Amino acid sequence: METLTRDKAWGLLTEFNKEHFHLKHALTVEGVMRWFANELGYADEQDFWGIVGLLHDLDFEQFPEQHCIKEQEIMRERGIDERIIHAAASHGYALTVDIKPEHEMEKVLYAVDELTGLIGAVALMRPSKSVSDLELKSVKKKYKTANFAAGCSREVIERGAEMLGWDLDTLIERTILAMRSCEDAYNNFSVDGE
Length: 194
Fold this sequence. Notes:
9 helices, mainly alpha, 61% helix
């Protein structure tokens, strides 16, 4: 089985995803996952964590009704490592699939996927439009407003925090720091590549 490089993963992602919003989300989650790999003692696996983050929504743009199901089929057809397939699909646990997040990396992905969207939405409302000066209290205030970023499931975020054994504040604070670490990468990309 050939190794899936970051460039090949990006090529696969852009084969199935064209919308700027989806590509930006993939880059955000990739960067956040790399940060958490380093933070949680998996520095030697940061490329793997990043690729899982990059590909986690591979099927969402074209196959939203089969999200986390179709991507398994696509990845298996391409001979991608089963660990990547399992990890990417596990973020749909109890939503579209029965694949439970088991490894700490899968639990992180499950917890941060929706949360990065919510934090990003809060950041866009700030004068800076950035997470660089975003504080926990600002996110918590918007988090409690049910109709703010309503597509970001609070239930999934809270279930993810629980899986990790973290309180919600810890998860939000760490995810803000993770998003700061890669903000330039996900804000300054062009759709045709890097």
